[in-house]
Specification:
about 200 residues; alpha+beta; Rieske Iron-sulfur Protein; 2 domains; three-stranded antiparallel β-sheet; 9 strands; about 20% strand; globular; iron; Rieske_Fe-S_prot_C; metal-binding; 2Fe-2S; metal ion binding
Length: about 200
């Protein structure tokens, strides 16, 4: 193999220099493209989320009846602004529920009540079915959804295996899910600002 370099100024030498520049530029671009996702994964906010840092949420624009989802510890965190009708629907079906008084530890002590919340109007939960980890969907009373009973009071339905939960995340009997939806630690740091992932005593 002839290892002799082309003479300076020759057409062969100019072609060689052009090839080296193109190859170097392509390699540099690839290195930058590879580095960007890697660097972003090391951003402080991403590291904090991965470590389970609390998530602050402004709920001032949350409309009555609306469900908003935020990410906490890689899980969907639900926030629902319950209407008076939704609160009323939590009554009258305790005999149909597995754990109507929320005696099992799926919630902090300050949410172990009829509404499973600090503020009855605002429901905070982890939106993961306690059966096999699917994410249920919100189904309102009178929606006509054939997957829920005709006398459905409103709540959540898991399409994976048919588990149903009322508007406080309490599971109905004879369903695959064994327990109520989990209520995460949370606190109000202002009237319309929630901190999910940290309880009221820690936030005080």
């Amino acid at each position: 193999m002839d290892m002799t370099l082309p003479a300076p100024g020759s057409p062969a030498n100019a072609e060689r220099r052009t090839w080296i520049m193109v190859t170097s530029a392509a390699g540099g671009a690839a290195a930058v493209a590879t580095a960007i996702p890697f660097v972003s994964t090391l951003a402080p906010s991403e590291r904090a989320k991965a470590a389970g840092a609390p998530v602050e949420v402004d709920i001032s624009s949350l409309a009555p009846g609306e469900l908003r989802t935020v990410e906490w510890r890689g899980k969907p965190g639900w926030i629902v602004r319950r209407t008076p009708e939704m609160l009323a629907s939590l009554q009258g079906h305790d005999d149909q529920l597995v754990d109507p008084k929320s005696e099992r530890q799926q919630q902090p002590d300050y949410a172990q009540n009829a509404t499973r919340s600090i503020n009855p109007e605002v429901f905070v939960a982890v939106g993961i079915c306690t059966h096999l980890g699917c994410s249920p969907s919100k189904v309102n009373k009178g929606s006509g959804n054939p997957s829920v009973p005709a006398d459905w009071p409103g709540g959540f339905f898991c399409p994976c295996h048919g588990s149903t939960f009322d508007g406080a995340g309490r599971v109905f009997k004879n369903k695959p899910a064994p327990t109520n939806l989990e209520i995460p630690p949370h606190a109000y740091i202002a009237e319309n600002r929630l901190l999910i992932g940290e309880d009221k005593s820690a936030a005080a």
